[in-house]
Amino acid sequence: MTGVAAQRVLLCGGSRVYATALSRALDHEGDITVVEVCRTAEEAIAALPRIRPDLVIMNLQLPGMDGLAAVQEIMSSRPVPILVILARVSTGGDGAAAALAAGALDAITSDDLDLRDPAGAAGSALRRRVKMLSRAHVIRHLRPGLWAASGAGDLARRASVIGVCASTGGPQILVHLLEALPADYPIPLLVVQHIGAGFIEGFAHWLDQSVPLSVAIATSGAQAGPGAWIAPEGVHLKLTATGQLYLDRRAVAGHHRPSGDVLFESIAAAAGRAGVAIVLSGMGADGAVGAAAVRARGGLAITQDEESSVVYGMPRAATDLGVDVVLSPSEIAASLLGLIHEPLPGTR
What we know:
This protein is of the alpha/beta class.
């Protein structure tokens, strides 16, 4: 492509045959170049200063240092966008969740990659995904314990429920927010996390094992009690006026199901002034309209700041519609700790 620099990709792991097929699919249109293929994580890490890739595609199953340890090392020392590949969700859901929390931008399974026809729809979708991730702004991902909540951003006000919407770049922020909250944190958190198909249950399970707070996939009819409740794949999560969770499989709202807008609008209706909406890193505009609805009812609308966002699309869209505060992750955590629990009107 004349005048346009090709996106530079480093591949790590997989068989020689698989790496050749993946390289052919990526190189098909000439605007992506596989500049290095490494067999081990150690080789890939050593090659980064020399190659300076726009994106690393890394298998989680590797000889020697595994893919998760490699993601942690890269994102804490020499950050670069990373797409992780695992054999199948059923054997690596927790590993993929941990990699996303450590700073990887996206996860896919090798079963999802049809490399037989580079010109086909699957090949085109893969290249679009790679080009989008290659342009993402990544930041150094601090080791656990270094994201402690600071006093900045403390907002002492009453809250009945907290809604969170996140997409690309969101998992690593979400895990650190939840790490900052004690196990007995009383205010329920309802979470919409856009993530690859098949990964949300593994992500919720990994969070439940990794943070003090209880984390579970939301179920219809359950009371929104303490803990974090994650919207299931392909279903809208709503809050009712009586404080129950409701799963909506029919509503159409934008391009996402679950949708942050749908969640936040239900929080606005159920909680009013005691509702909180938080929009984290992600592409697009999901959550912006819903956060504005929470704010219009007197609730609190927060967005992640641009400096810490991998993709500033969703926070920017929400900020443009109007929010109360734009905060860093540590300031958001401090704000959550400063909230005073107030039961929902229908549950008193």
